[in-house]
Amino acid sequence: MNALRALAAAALFGCSLATPSSAQTSPRSAAELMDAVMWNREPIGGPFKLTDHTGQLRTDADFRGKLMLIYFGFTYCPDICPTDLQAIGLAMDQLGANAKDVLPLFITLDPERDTVEHLAQYVSLFHPRLIGLTGSASAVAQAADAYRVYYNRVTFDAAKSDYTVDHSAFIYLVDRDGKYLGFFPPGTSAEKIAQMIEPHLRGKDER
Ligand code: NI
Hints:
Oligomer: single chain
Order of helices and strands: HHEEEHEHEHEEEEH
Strand order of the largest sheet: 2-1-5-4-3-8-9
Shape: globular
Structural class: alpha+beta
Distance between the termini: 34 Å
Bound molecules: nickel (II) ion
Strand content: 15-25%
Mean pLDDT: 88
Largest sheet: 7 strands, mixed
């Protein structure tokens, strides 16, 4: 089983090496990456260097001192991303004045279509403080790998180059020092997100 998984991962990695200019698939399988996050088997989080929806270059270090709510997805996602981003936006509203200590980040897994301009329009639909982040395929891959995000470009119609992006959809919570605290599964309600962030805002981080 493990040997097979390793082989499958090696095969995928081989594919991505063949097309280094556009990473379209995470180098590891969905099962392996979901396992790493759900059972906390590997360290989650790490440095990233991306461009925000106003065109500014941002790194993870810029966000120290705030809790980060990080979500990976893509703007053409038909339902999961908008649902979760809406919950994140509503959770921010529910936190009231405390929301100033929380930064919600949306990192695209589809940098080819999610340009700075496109992200600017999209993030404004969900919350005025939501920050959209994009970058080169390799910069996006680095961020996704750090958070053990699975993504895979699936082509509908090769002739029209129409595609979607399958992806894992955890909402990651990171503390003021950039340390990973945990995740909310896809579909977590705004109420639950707000309730679970509140103790961390009061400085009662248990780790
Ligand atoms: Ni999505």
